[in-house]
Amino acid sequence: MAERVEFEVPAATLARAMSGSVVDDSDDFRRHNLGWLLMCLGNDFFRRSGPEFYRRGYTGLTKAHSVVLTHLPLGGARVTDLARTARVTKQAIGPLVTDMERLGYVERLRDPSDARAKIVRFTEKGLGLVQDAREVVAETWSQYAEILGEERLEAVREGLDEILARLDQARDD
Fold first, then answer.
1. Which residues contact 69 (CB under 8 A, 6 or more apart)?
2. What is the pLDDT of residue 109?
3. Euclidean distance between the first and the last CA atom of the chain, given in angstroms as a whole number
């Protein structure tokens, strides 16, 4: 289950925000915090890669589908396991799986170890998408490397990988 995070906003800050007299650096903060930067980069990544997937015949995909595409093991998984791995709820991942099933990228099969459960796995079309994604992602990576440099971009990737690994470790402890 996704962890709920609550933020406390000091009463004075909230009062300034409500009156419209928020400190002058609020816009700067909002545009340079890590969440905003990651969101913008994710949007740009999809803007760059989306048309190439479409050109290759993978239609109907949205950014939301990337949750399934990047977390579904090639051997398949139960929806509950997929949701846990993706750090979302079963209720959030279920409609995405249904939509991707409708588009022909995944299928649901009976779990041989539990007849009540279903395994979600890639179809042939979905496996083609996963394979083609290597090339599309590599092209997008090289575009970013032109901007930042290969070494700095690799350092960013390593840092983000480490953050996620530590979050996974903390979640599992």
1. 105, 129, 130, 133
2. 95
3. 15
Query: Quick check: 78 and 118 in contact, CB under 8 A?
Result: yes
Per-residue confidence (pLDDT) for residue 20, from 0 to 100: 58
CA 159 – CA 105 distance, rounded (Å):
31
- CA–CA dist 117, 37 (Å, integer): 39
pLDDT tens for 17-74 read: 556 555 556 777 777 788 889 999 999 999 999 999 999 999 999 999 999 999 999 9
* Cα gap 52→39, rounded to integer Å: 21
- Contact yes or no for 108/101 (Cβ under 8 A): yes
List, in order, residues 6 or more apart from 74 with CB less than 8 Å away: 121, 122, 127, 130
Average pLDDT score over residue span 89-114: 95
Q: Indicate the pairing of strand 106-111 with strand 114-122.
A: antiparallel
Angstrom distances, CA of residue 44 to CA of 40, 63, 97, 142, 165? 6, 11, 24, 14, 24
90-103 and 79-86 are packed helices; what angle lies between their axes, rounded to 10 degrees? 110
Predicted structure pTM score: 0.74
Return the structure tokens found at 157.
Answer: 């990737």
